[in-house]
Write a structure and sequence with these properties.
Structural class of chain B: alpha+beta
Shape of chain B: globular
Radius of gyration of chain A: 49 Å
Strand content of chain A: 35-45%
Number of strands of chain A: 31
Strand content of chain B: 5-15%
Low-confidence stretches of chain A: 22-30, 137-151, 257-271, 445-451
Mean pLDDT of chain A: 76
Mean pLDDT of chain B: 83
Radius of gyration of chain B: 23 Å
Largest sheet of chain B: 5 strands, antiparallel
Number of helices of chain A: 11
Largest sheet of chain A: 5 strands, antiparallel
Oligomer: heterodimer
Order of helices and strands of chain B: HHHHHHHHEEEEEEE
CATH superfamily of the largest domain in chain B: Tetratricopeptide repeat domain
Number of domains of chain B: 3
Shape of chain A: flat
CATH architecture of the largest domain in chain B: Alpha Horseshoe
Distance between the termini of chain B: 43 Å
Structural class of chain A: alpha+beta
Helix content of chain A: 25-40%
Chain lengths: ~625, ~250
């Protein structure tokens, strides 16, 4: 009884489920395919782009065929899919976005865009885009509200950039200064970031912005914000005061408080303020905008490195560094190079760091070596660099040797020269004769760099194509020729090997001997030479049997044959006849037809295809 | 007679080319760096790429502070003479000046081995070895070698050729990205989201940065700045492929 009730219930649910699936599929199928294209702007400035959104409703796929229009640039910006379920009806849309613009002013028509779905062709309506010259565009857009974050007192949010170190408001040329970049989004807003942090100006270079941002909630000027914080580094190559302008593209949706002005007075629907706030939050419509959050033009001073106190060995390193180990051999010989290894660790701009100098400098000849940087953190502000270079001692004897490294310390605002622990070394051999003046006059920094540049070539070398062979069309045919030669050579080798195969040659010789013997037998038959006929026939059988039994032809006798083959076989019978004529000295008047038949039968019995076991 | 005339014409052209080269060198020595650079470019345009002209042009650009152009010229010269230590030293200087460093992500020894030959030399090595191997196989296919010593030599040669083909092909495979290698020429170059002059900027790679040119259209190049993951559009005038020596 209970079982029946369960079965009835299961059956009812199954029916409902099937009905729901049928209804859903009907709804999905019923959704007619529609295609629609829209431009977010009717006119754009030369060099700017409008966003064209192409929506295919009622389909999950479909590739638009974008037409070519002269001077009009249509560049894909991505594809997305939207699935909505409203009142049980599911609708699917595929949305394509394109940036459309031109570098030539004029009125452009974007023709119908065709989309083929399940063999059926759909087309959008043509669109018009006016591309304005710069002057016209600025006049037209003069009264339009700006879409940057500055509009409406940072209503949609803003960006701030500040040096991570609170103690300083400046950086030095060549220094990578850690910065904190913060995007301030109103707490009640919904934001989606559309790009990474982008530098606006060219004075600063942005380095190693952290991939993962920190999120906090903060109050600024009495407003609550969601603050997204990144860390990165900026550096400058020229002294001066420059705005550290950065920007970030985002789509921000904020509540449209003005929309309630025409309806219910805000916050007065219910007696309870909490209920009022919840009601307002739910009912206030959202305004969504694609905006560019920009930092205020916060100026950061870039100071030149002081020229006073600049050590001779200074090569541009800015930061805080220390020697972190090294290897200096203890035994040397004048004129013979050995490797020196030094590790310098710390924080700063490792890119501008050169190898440490050997002290005393005049006693050594140094060759450029290699270096390897190992980052200590994600932003590469800290880490260590290992230098490996060759040095040749000029003077013999016991000496003290050390490594020196100079850098500018921005915290101490002074040049620092650090020295590795002194190493006592022994240098064997005679002092080397100086091949150049030991002391080089110090000059200004740029001139020094120019001197290091290897001078002009005086002989003009031959002109050649820069395109490597591998990227030229001739490369594959050349390889093909090589491969073809290999194949042809291989084929020749196979043919030659087959031709010179001893087994094959033996077989051929045997066949030739058999053939010659049979021809001789035929000749003897025609000339009625009985003994010649039997001798030739016997030879033909002997040769063939010898090849089969791997014996010399002459060794095949009637005894051998009868030992292996039955006596009534044509071979044995022919041999018997042949022996009778050879040893019996029977003289006949001619070749009897049955002898010829017997020979034919014997040769047929020796055919490998018919009698393989003989 | 005809050969003599052709030879005289070619010789005359060569002398003319060399004299322009000497003239540019004299201009450089006298301090007219910009003038020398113009003459070097004219020689390149008329005679085609030459390692020494590109080297000297790179020196001019370096002296003029146009590090992106200098790196571009040096990289072009490196394609023709990859083991020129002077060239490598000057290229290193230019990169340091532009703070544009190249990190292949490979071990230094692997890098040294891969760069000991230019791409052209690697490809000729592979093609030459393939032809040599083909010729060897053809020879062996035709003729019969009876001497054991000869067979031994042939086997060693064939094995060496196969080794060169495999090794060279592997080197070419590892350096396949260099097909579309380019250099950012100007400091002001901005990578933008779309191929428009005023499209949203994504970043400033800096002069001398090495990029991979993935697409070219609308007067823009779609590039990927190597080592940064930055991808976007850069105007043609700000970037140039190394293999083509297109110099805006």
């Amino acid at each position: 009884m209970v079982m029946c009730r369960y079965l009835e219930m299961i059956s009812r649910y199954l029916h409902l489920g099937v009905l729901a699936v049928v209804l859903m599929s009907t709804c999905l199928e019923a959704a007619a395919v529609e295609v629609d294209a829209r431009l977010d702007l009717e006119s754009v400035e030369v060099g700017n782009g409008a966003i064209m959104t192409l929506r295919i409703s009622g389909a999950r796929s479909g590739k638009p065929e974008i037409p070519e229009v002269e001077n009009l640039i249509i560049q894909s910006r991505g594809q997305s899919q939207q699935v909505q379920m409203v009142n049980g009806i599911t609708s699917v849309s595929v949305i394509y976005q394109y940036a459309v613009g031109s570098n030539v002013p004029g009125d452009y028509q974007i023709p119908s865009i065709a989309i083929v779905l399940d063999g059926k062709r759909y087309a959008t309506q043509p669109l018009m885009l006016k591309v304005l010259g710069s002057a016209v565009a600025s006049a037209v857009s003069g009264n339009e509200p700006s879409e940057t974050g500055d509009d409406g007192k940072n209503r949609f949010g803003f960006l701030t950039v500040e040096l991570a170190s609170n103690e300083r408001r400046h950086v030095y040329v060549g220094e990578i200064a850690p910065v904190r970049i913060r995007a301030w989004i109103p707490e009640a807003a919904r934001a989606q970031l559309r790009s990474g942090i982008q530098p606006e100006g060219v004075a600063f270079t942005l380095h190693n912005v952290s991939d993962e941002a920190q999120q906090t909630r903060e109050i600024k000027d009495g407003k609550r914000y969601l603050v997204v914080t990144w860390f990165g580094g900026i550096s400058a190559t020229k002294a001066g005061k420059y705005p550290a302008s950065l920007s970030l593209n985002a789509t921000v949706a904020v509540r449209d408080t003005a929309a309630l002005k025409t309806g219910r007075p805000k916050g007065r629907a219910f007696g309870d303020p909490l209920l009022n706030r919840i009601f307002d939050d739910v009912n206030e419509p959202m305004i969504q905008k694609d905006i560019t959050l920009k930092s205020d033009d916060q100026e950061i001073e870039v100071r030149a490195l002081p020229s006073e106190g600049r050590p001779d060995g200074f090569s541009g390193a800015v930061g805080e560094f220390k020697f972190d180990g090294g290897e200096i051999p203890a035994d040397w010989k004048t004129g013979e190079p050995q490797q020196i290894r030094a590790r310098i660790s710390g924080t700063g701009n490792f890119a501008l760091m050169n190898a440490p100098k050997v002290s005393p400098a005049n006693d050594w000849k140094i060759y450029p070596g290699k270096d390897e940087f190992t980052a200590g953190d994600q932003a590469s502000f800290s880490g260590s660099k290992v230098f490996q270079f060759s040095a040749v001692p000029r003077r013999g004897g016991e000496q003290n040797m050390a490594l020196e490294f100079s850098f500018f310390d921005p915290k101490a605002v002074a040049y620092q020269t650090i020295t590795s622990p002194v190493r006592e070394i022994r240098v064997s051999g005679e002092d080397m004769v100086d091949d150049k003046p030991a002391v080089v006059e110090a000059g200004p920094e740029p001139a020094k760099k120019e001197r290091e540049l290897v001078g002009q070539r005086s002989v003009m070398s031959a002109s050649r194509d820069l395109m490597p062979l591998v990227f030229r069309p001739a490369f594959v045919p050349l390889l093909g020729v090589g491969g073809g030669l290999c194949i042809v050579g291989g084929l020749f080798a196979v043919i030659r090997r087959r031709l010179s195969d001893p087994r094959r040659l033996t077989q051929a010789a045997m066949e030739k001997a058999v053939k010659d013997a049979l021809v001789a037998a035929e000749y003897c038959s025609a000339s009625k030479d009985v003994s010649g006929f039997f001798a030739a026939g016997r030879l033909a059988i002997q040769v063939r049997l010898g090849a089969r039994w791997n014996q010399p032809a002459q060794a095949i006798t009637l005894a051998e044959i009868t030992a292996r083959i039955s006596d009534d076989s044509p071979i044995a019978r022919f041999f018997h006849e042949a022996d009778l004529h050879a040893y019996g000295r029977q003289v006949g008047s001619g070749i009897l037809p049955q002898w010829q038949v017997l020979l034919d039968e014997a040769m047929a019995a020796l055919n490998p295809s018919t009698h393989p076991l003989i | 007679m005809v050969l003599t005339i052709i030879y005289s014409l070619l010789a005359g052209l060569a002398v003319a080319g060399e004299s322009r080269f000497d003239q540019a060198n004299r201009q450089f020595e006298s301090g007219d760096i910009a003038g020398a650079a113009v003459v070097y470019q004219e020689i390149l345009a008329s005679d085609g790429p030459s390692a020494s002209v590109l080297f000297n042009l790179g020196n001019c650009d370096q002296r003029l502070g146009k590090y992106g152009y200098a790196i571009h010229a040096y990289e072009g010269a490196r394609l023709l003479s990859p083991r020129d230590s002077d060239l490598l030293a000057n290229l290193d200087l230019a990169r340091k000046a532009a703070t544009a460093f190249e990190d292949s992500g490979r071990h230094p020894i692997a890098d040294a081995v891969l760069n000991c030959l230019s791409l052209n030399e690697w490809s000729w090595l592979v093609a030459g070895s393939a032809l040599f191997l083909g010729g060897l196989v053809l020879l062996c296919g035709f003729g019969r070698m009876r001497r054991r010593r000869m067979i031994y030599c042939v086997r060693i040669s064939a094995g060496f050729a196969v080794f060169l083909i495999v090794g060279g092909a592997f080197a070419l495979y590892l350096r396949r990205d260099e097909a579309n290698r380019g250099i950012v020429l100007n400091e002001s170059a901005v990578v933008r989201l779309s191929p428009f002059e005023k499209a949203e900027p994504l970043g400033t790679p800096g002069q001398g940065s090495i990029v991979r040119i993935l697409q070219t259209k609308y007067g823009f190049d779609f590039v990927e700045v190597i080592g940064t993951g930055l991808r976007g559009w850069v105007p043609d005038k700000d970037v140039s492929a190394i293999h083509h020596m297109r110099r805006p």
